[in-house]
Amino acid sequence: MGVRDTDTTLAGRVRSADTDTMCPERLVLEHVTSRWGALVLIALLDRSYRFSELRREIGTVSEKMLAQTLQTLERDGLVHRDAKPVIPPRVDYSLTDLGREAAEQVRALSLWVAQRMAAVRKAREEYDAAKA
Amino acid sequence: MGVRDTDTTLAGRVRSADTDTMCPERLVLEHVTSRWGALVLIALLDRSYRFSELRREIGTVSEKMLAQTLQTLERDGLVHRDAKPVIPPRVDYSLTDLGREAAEQVRALSLWVAQRMAAVRKAREEYDAAKA
DNA sequence: CAGCATCCCCATCGATACTG
DNA sequence: CAGTATCGATGGGGATGCTG
């Protein structure tokens, strides 16, 4: 998940020039369904979180990826960042109205996957069996 | 994403997947929201497609990635592959009932993104302006 | 036509160290 | 506490060539 779209590398220029394959809608879809993006959005549906709280809640995300994910979601207007001017620093993250809409969609999709997981597993077994 | 009673949120599920790569739910979510997976599912909502038709319809997908995507979706029980024993080969791809459910979720998410794209763009401009 | 096999680049992500 | 900076390896995926 790229934080900046103004990247001047060769790959970046090629990609941003190719609006057919990497349309902006696709990028947003990627931001909300990406590994950490989805987990962050779903977590924030419950309540707001501080940075480290979120990190513990998700459990396996690196500091770097969490920061990057939150910045991307904030830039898209899905997450609100509230940095309080205190020592030690305290930053609260919450969903915007837009972000709540996105998070609910993502949660619905996640719940669907969970509900249908048994069917998927069965399909896989049959597929693998038919191959052998 | 599945919620076990002993673990109300996300951390435990991801953590328990450390033995492998990630939890199976996450993998399925990735299959249906991946770049080519989402496009394939949405295309197949309209009608069944032959391999090359699908390739032209999506426009920028490589042969390799389309084949790979279709196999993954077929293995998950979302896509049905109908290979007719004729020369030259003819293979039709269509959605299973399970796949149709997934495709509708993905389409809903895509439509939401499209609808809210203006708001996202505005949020980005404000974010970028505030940074400069 | 509908793929599979191979090579290889480089973007993504984890790990580590550092800072206000 | 809440990040930023840097580096290395891992693997996704495009390009190409071949097959039934």
Task: Please summarize what this structure is.
2 copies of one chain form a homodimer. By secondary structure, chain A is mostly helical.
Tell me about this structure.
- The structure is a homodimer of 132-residue chains.
- Chain A has 132 residues and is mainly alpha-helical.
- The first copy, chain A, has one domain: Winged helix-like DNA-binding domain superfamily/Winged helix DNA-binding domain (Arc Repressor Mutant, subunit A), CATH 1.10.10.10.
- In chain A, α2 packs across α3 and α3 packs across α6.
- The radius of gyration of chain A is 18 Å and the shape is elongated.
- At the A-B interface, α2, α3, α4 and α6 of A face α1, α2 and α6 of B.
- The structure holds a DNA duplex (20 and 20 nucleotides).
- Chains A, B: InterPro entries: HTH_HxlR, WH-like_DNA-bd_sf, WH_DNA-bd_sf.
- Chains A, B: One of its GO terms (molecular function) is DNA binding.
- Chains A, B: Keywords: DNA-binding, Transcription, Transcription regulation.
- Content of β-strand of chain A: 5-15%
Number of E-type strands of chain A: 3
**CATH homology-level superfamily of chain A:** Winged helix-like DNA-binding domain superfamily/Winged helix DNA-binding domain
The end-to-end span of chain A amounts to 37 Å
Rounded Rg of chain A: 18 Å
CATH topology-level fold name of chain A: Arc Repressor Mutant, subunit A
Overall geometric form of chain A? elongated
Total of DSSP H or I helical runs spanning 4+ residues of chain A: 6
**CATH second-level architecture of chain A:** Orthogonal Bundle
Class by SSE composition of chain A: mainly alpha
Strand order of the largest sheet of chain A: 1-3-2
**How would you state the average pLDDT of chain A, rounded?**
86
Taken in chain order, the helices and strands of chain A follow as HHHEHHEEH
Tell me the name of the CATH class of chain A: Mainly Alpha
Q: Characterize the quaternary organization of these chains.
A: homodimer
What does the main sheet of chain A amount to? Answer: 3 strands, antiparallel
* Interface with most residues: A-B, 50 and 50 residues
Give the % helix of chain A: 55-70%
Unreliable spans of chain A = 1-21
GO molecular function (chains A, B): DNA binding
InterPro entries (chains A, B): HTH_HxlR, WH-like_DNA-bd_sf, WH_DNA-bd_sf
Domain HTH hxlR-type (chains A, B): 23-121
Protein name (chains A, B): Transcriptional regulator
